[in-house]
Amino acid sequence: MASDLLVYNIGVLITSKEIDIINKTSMENIEVLNNAYVAIKNGHIFSLGEGDYDSSLIESNTILIDAEKNVVIPGLIDSHTHLVHGGSRENEMFLKAKGATYMEILNAGGGILSTVKATKEATKEELVEKAKISLKKMLAFGITTIESKSGYGLDLETEIKQLEVNQILDKEQPIDIVSTFMGAHAIPKEYKGKEEAFIKNVIQMLPEIKAKNLAEFCDIFCEHGIFSVDQSREVLKAAKKLGFKLKIHADEIESIGGAELAGELETTSSEHLMAVSDEGIIALKNSGVIANILPGTSFYLKKEYAPVRKMIDYGVQIALSTDYNPGSCPTENLQLIMQIAALYLNMSPIEIIKAVTINGAKSLNKEKQIGSIEIGKKADLVMFNSKSLEYILYHFGINHTKMVIKNGEIVYYI
Ligand code: NIG
Ligand code: FE
């Protein structure tokens, strides 16, 4: 049977299909094909292989794309973003340069709380338009699926507004959006000293978010001075009961047992982990929680990087994401995050690709549909203007994308 679109003459095709290998860490167990082709039909992967494609795969209507020996990989997955928000916080950059810390700025009503104010003030349409500009940039960087959290409302009405923006965006542009409710992102000013009451309030928001089908995941900022391990357990357990899948911002600034809680609750992923303890690493490994690492945040806040090599040695699976948000990582550039991972996390090129493809899919519980180029999966691919994978990681700060295919359609080409 003929295909709708066929990409041939691919120099290096990283399918991200997990394979059995010997003498390698489990983060390098993905398939790499040379001189390969991929055929697409009805928006899905129809056939792939090395060498010449079978002539039965094409007919007069088939779109043929010569990859000219470039690298092709699955569409990138940014599995942790705070895409939908009002305003920007460039002023904080220069307060930090004068010595103020992230937490000091937050405690003075800035930081997340200033974005909460801007997000409350923005209309739904304004939020859609602003986020669309970011999504366009993301698509150009080769991203075909993202996760997008609420958490800049902290009240039911604004949280719902943010999540409805996700729904609208999911329909109106090519990138698939997975929604996460993060009502427990910070303690609003009016709840200072009344944290328990705020926790109750967040728990009361859950049934309506669920009934409106506005979010698949529930996340919380478990951090010293924000939400404790016990408070995080309370919120996440209530969410799990209602059928939400779980994520947790854990051990970002201080090690307080967030990763251990992720292990206990078997969350799908655990985010940040810059200050994770050895016990936390073991908990992640034993419960199969994906460690979602956000090195752009370490870079931007000039903080420690998460101990990724140690986690890989313990057998933890790593995903890499931007954490795109107006405070701790204002960038949509996942390729830059991959380059930072090569430079500062000492991850190998194959480990990095695994982290932004199949492991990104796993951290969204979508590994059956996306994250690898395998027959039957969604035809989400990115072609880079490069003959080698290493070059993409070496030539930093630029955009290497040549073509993006989403659901079998060419949605970006340069
Ligand atoms: O993932 N850690 C909490 N939330 C975001 C930062 C949000 C902000 O500063 O606006 C993060 O780093
Ligand atoms: Fe985050």
User: What is the percent of helical residues?
Assistant: 25-40%
Q: How many β-strands, per DSSP?
A: 16
Unique ligands: N-(iminomethyl)-L-glutamic acid, fe (iii) ion
CATH class of the largest domain: Alpha Beta
Number of helices: 15
Distance between the termini: 30 Å
Strand percent estimate: 15-25%
Parts with pLDDT < 50 across at least 5 consecutive residues? none
Describe this entry's structure for a reader:
- This protein folds into two domains: 5-74 and 373-413, Urease, subunit C, domain 1; 77-363, TIM Barrel.
- It is 36% helix and 24% strand.
- It contains 15 helices and 16 strands.
- The longest helix is centred in the N-terminal third of the chain and has 17 residues, at 124-140.
- It is globular, with a radius of gyration of 21 Å.
- It starts with a strand and ends with a strand.
- The model has no long low-confidence stretch (mean pLDDT 97).
- The chain binds N-(iminomethyl)-L-glutamic acid and fe (iii) ion.
- The site of fe (iii) ion (FE) has 6 residues, from loops.
